[in-house]
Write the structure tokens for this entry.
Amino acid sequence: MSARSPLLTLWFWLFVAFLFAPLAVMAAMGFRDSGFVAFPIQKWTTRWYADALADRDYRVALWVSVQVAVWSTLLSMAVGVPTAFAVARLRGVVRAAAVAVVVLPAFLPIVVSAIALRMFLGRLGMEPGLSAIAFGHAVGSVPFVVVMLLTRLNAMSPSLAEAARNLGADEAIVLSRIVLPFLSPALFGAFLFCILLSFEDFMRSFFLGGFDQTFPVLLFARLRFGFNPGLAAISAVVLAATMLLGLHAERFLRRRGIDR
Amino acid sequence: MTARAGGAPRTDETPAIEVEGVTKRFGTHGALDDVSLAVAPGLFVTLLGPSGCGKSTLLRAVAGFVIPDAGRLRIGGRDMTREPPHRRPVSMVFQDYALFPHMTVRENIGFGCEMKGMSRAEIARRCAELLELIRLPEVGGRLPEALSGGQRQRVALARALAPDPVSLLLDEPLGALDLKLRLEMQQELKAIQRRTGKTFVFVTHDQDEALSMSDRVAVMRAGRIEQIDAPERLYARPATAFVAGFVGAANMIAMQVEETGAQLACSPVAAPGLRWVLPAAAVSSAEAPRRGGAALMVVRPEALRVGPPPAEGFPSIEAEVVERTFFGGRVHLRLRGPGGMTLVAEARPQDSPAPGEVVTCHALPDEIALIAGDAAAPVPPPARPQT
């Protein structure tokens, strides 16, 4: 922070507190040596954390979540990237209409789209479960992939591809050596965003999951038996893991010098 | 790169670029209308014209980004009308440079060589050589964003030269630079062209740029080439009213041809009482003047001299000085002649009259161009695009 205004500094720290205080409380709750969540914490323990890490159900649900995240992300990229290329070629009203159609799913109430997907996939003969969830997540993520890619594509001067062609590159080389590297920050960003969207999704996972529970769905199921420090502990662990991943991704981007 | 002594154009060889009757329409708008052009190897040829005249379309057609509806195109003697852009031996320099932002300067320059399948060692040698040529030997490892505008421009030039193309195609490459840098780059570009002996086809709307850099200038208008000539000739002998007005300042006096036999006599439309006799060589249009037909007399401001003519029969006119503008070494005079005719003259400060004075002006016959026939049809004053 180069701004030295004290008011701005105060504001900044208030903002940080607003963001992180609930998370800190949650993480602290995981150390409470009691069956209930309450303040103040009089006795401390690491039992909840140890239990959470040892809990087989959590690990199974996390593994389901990871698989769903990866598959749905791959699927939404596979659909979204070519769609972005196609939309980028359009002009005028047609383009506006195409963008509207592509982005529409992002504005549907998720409950509605989840129920619709359940019925639709049932019609297709796809049983509720891991692949149904992955499919549902992909449907939800495609708009974001398209929009992120489209923004980057719009920033690309058409003369870049022309220059490459002019210097002897055919279409395939232009794509692999010029267009994709230029898009890489957006591709990477879209990838991460899809993973996170999928990982945190509850609604679609709930409606489309059969016996396969994703992590948020399992947490919800556990909640029905009451909120105990164990839930706080496992949430804190997941939070830490996600943050590490995010920070690493950011460093990766910086090192590659492609975050501009 | 073949170094060549001197800058004398070689004209006895196969043209580097040959355009034959190329036509291109975009929707109903005709961008190129039966354009033909032959560029001799080693020449610096400029396509000059206002925006929308088709000069960039013609360049892009040579590069292969625009496929003509009709006509043929040969590069280095080979027919390339249907060849895709990546198989044409021409290199383009774009107005926005189009340097690949994720590649270093060296990778940018080497890209074309890499596509030609040159070895790493060859590419490295070529890059070093070109970085030397553009006098930026130390920037090879940098990304384009770390360069100044002028440096980017030079790197773009080096990248285009690297694969040793038959010709360089430059699409308003100096348009994005400020005036001072622009003048510097004009010199630099011309020097590099001389040193490498490469054929340059340069597109611009700036007549100063065109006149100062080129061996040949093709003036374009509405999808056609109006005239192609050496800069001096273009200035002194404009073939059409448009060329006369677009290239340099000019007094353009509407005339009526009176006599076409042994001597060419004509009268200004605004002042039918005057009668001027011109040598037949004054006619610069393709069409010859017809008796009773319209013509346009072109006299550059510096050729309109203040003072009585040295001999009888020289075209001369009485005019009143309306305005005198001092420019240091010279003054601009705005004069009003008979019939409300407005004339512009350029004179030395010491022998220029003051506003209000009525003076006699004359022009030497060999400094007059007469455009006859359709080419004399008045054109609306060219809208200079501001870039």
Notes: Chain A touches chain B through 21 residues (CB under 8 Å).
